[in-house]
Structure formats: C-alpha cells, structure tokens
TrEMBL record:
<feature type="domain" description="GSCFA">
    <location>
        <begin position="22"/>
        <end position="259"/>
    </location>
</feature>
<protein>
    <recommendedName>
        <fullName>GSCFA domain-containing protein</fullName>
    </recommendedName>
</protein>
<dbReference type="InterPro" id="IPR014982">
    <property type="entry name" value="GSCFA"/>
</dbReference>
<dbReference type="Pfam" id="PF08885">
    <property type="entry name" value="GSCFA"/>
</dbReference>
Length: 317
C-alpha cells in the first residue's frame, strides 16, 4: 500500500563533493538549501545580495558582478530613515549612505571572485511576478516598502524568463566556463499574488527552465525537482510551516535527503555522516560540565573534529 507518489530523480552527472566550491542564489528556499550545505560544512556561499526572487533581478546582479559595475549614489535612495538599493534585499539597507555603498561594492567584488572559482552554482527561482519602478522602468528585487503607486506589476513572459536565465549562464561562462548549474523552483507559495496567479507564475518558470534544458541550451546544467517533491510527494499541510506557505523543517530535511541521494557524490556520504555526528554532539548539554564523563566526551569530540580537519582544513566548528 502506497501513501505517496515519489518523484523520480535522475542521478546528477556533476555531483557535489567536499572539494566543490558552491554558490547558492535565489529565493528563501535557496537559503534553506544553503543552510543545509553550511551545516554539513561544504564550501558554500549563499545570497551575497540577500534573497532574490525573480530571474531578471538575479540576472542583473550576476551581470553587474561579472562586469564589476560599481554601485554609486544614483543606485540608492532614502526611505523610512534608511538608505536602500532596489537591486538588493533590505537586509543590506543602512542608515548611512556610504556604508551601504561600501557594503554593496564589497559584495560585488566578493561575488565576482566566488563566481570565478565556483564548481557548482545552485539557482532557485521563486516567482515570475515582478515590480517595475515607474520612473526608470527597471525591474526591482525588493520594493523596500515604497508605496505601491511607485511601481507597475506584471508577469514575466516565458520568453523573457528564458532570456534572463540564458544571459545569467552566458555571463558566468565568460569567467568560469567549467562550472555546473543546478536549477530549482521554490516550493514556497506566493499567495499574496493570488492562488491562480501563483500557479501561473510557477508555470512560466517551469516552462522556461524545461525549454532551455530539454533543448540542451544550458551546458552542464540540471534541474532538481524541489517544487515537485513538495507538490506531489509531500502533498499535505503537515509539511508546511505555521504560515501554510513555506515548507516545514521536516519537508526541508526530506528534500535535502533527496538532494543528497541525487546530487552529492557517494564518496562524500561517509563524511556527511561524520559531520552530522559532530554537529549533534556539539549540541549536547551536560548535567555537570565539570564531570569526568563529560570531560572525556569533550576530549573524544575534539579528537574527531581534529581528524576531520586534517582531511578538510576548511571545516570550522
């Protein structure tokens, strides 16, 4: 008797291992996956410019980073006692204009260097709905709580999404022709856009990605079906958080296990288990921190960490 419909996932031809240099970019689901990669001590960088939802904004930031087009005073504005930039998330906003510009340009250089050395780039798209700033006509990454009257909202066409994805890949290929791409679609439901509108948005993203992948227009690229796993395999509200929109920690863990099986090299699995055992041990809270038994526990734990760091010096606990 089956109670679910498992999504079949083909084993990746370009698996991640502990020698990989990974960049994780995109929606809040990219943050979820990035957190898993960080937990297991992969060499990973997640969203240097904060959470970005739509393909055009991701393209714009990638191209700007690769072209090293510095942010200037013209790229920032003052609202609600803080300086903001329409191209990045509000997490980067600041009360000081120069501090914001310095932070943005530091992230620009950092992103450029990471792209040049990346072996894998994971991109998660969240929505096809975008907001265009009326004065400039530019698509923004974040509205920063500016009045709705400042923007026009519209749904990106499949063709424009394909172009944005292709331009993103082409720009990266210019400085790093050998890196692999993993594309995913965020399972987070953007209900503020409307139920039908959310489905249209996801459909445009799926169609654009599959058009490019099926026509082999994206070399060394694959699709990981996170969205399909949640929609078809975990088809139950118990796999959502309290807001009933974002996947729960249980769902994220399950998606990670599917990612591990399909996209992480089997040669790395034993190390994953070692890292997890250490991480769980680090959370251990003793009844008596001065007890001899706890001191022995700590000593053995440090020995495990040291042996692992001998093989992987970049791992920090």
């Amino acid at each position: 008797m089956n109670f679910t419909t498992p999504v079949n996932i083909t084993k990746s031809m370009h698996c991640v291992d502990f020698s990989s240099e990974i960049i994780t970019i995109g929606s809040c689901f990219a943050v979820n996956m990035g957190a898993q990669l960080d937990y297991f001590k992969f060499k990973n960088t997640t969203n240097p410019f904060g959470i970005i939802f739509n393909p055009v904004s991701i393209e714009k930031l990638i191209v700007r980073s690769i072209n090293q087009k510095k942010f200037t005073e013209e790229d920032v504005f003052f609202q609600n006692e803080r300086f903001h930039c329409y191209e990045v998330h509000s997490d980067l906003s600041s009360t000081n204009q120069q501090e914001l510009l310095n932070s943005l340009n530091t992230s620009l250089e950092f992103t450029y260097q990471k792209i040049k050395t990346a072996t894998h780039i994971l991109i998660t798209y969240g929505t096809s709905w975008v907001y265009q700033e009326k004065n400039s006509g530019a698509v923004v990454s974040n509205c920063h709580k500016m009045p709705q009257s400042h923007f026009d909202k519209h749904l990106l066409s499949v063709a424009s999404i394909e172009a944005a994805i292709q331009n993103t890949v082409d720009a990266i290929r210019k400085v790093n022709p050998n890196c692999s791409f993993v594309f995913t679609l965020s399972p987070v439901r953007h209900i503020k856009d409307g139920f039908v509108e959310n489905q249209r948005s996801k459909a445009h993203l799926i169609t654009a990605l599959q058009n490019l992948l099926s026509d082999h227009l994206l070399d060394q690229a694959g699709y990981f079906p996170a969205y399909e796993i949640v929609m078809d395999e975990l088809r139950d509200y118990r796999f959502y958080g309290d807001d009933l929109l974002h996947p729960s920690s249980m769902a994220i863990e399950y998606i990670w296990q599917r990612f591990r099986a399909s996209s992480i090299s089997e040669t790395a699995w034993s190390t994953l288990d070692e890292v997890e055992a250490i991480q769980k041990s680090l959370l251990h809270k003793p009844f008596n921190s001065l007890a001899e038994s706890h001191q022995k526990f700590q000593s053995k734990l440090q020995e495990k960490i040291s042996k692992l760091q001998e093989r992987y010096p970049f791992m920090k606990f």
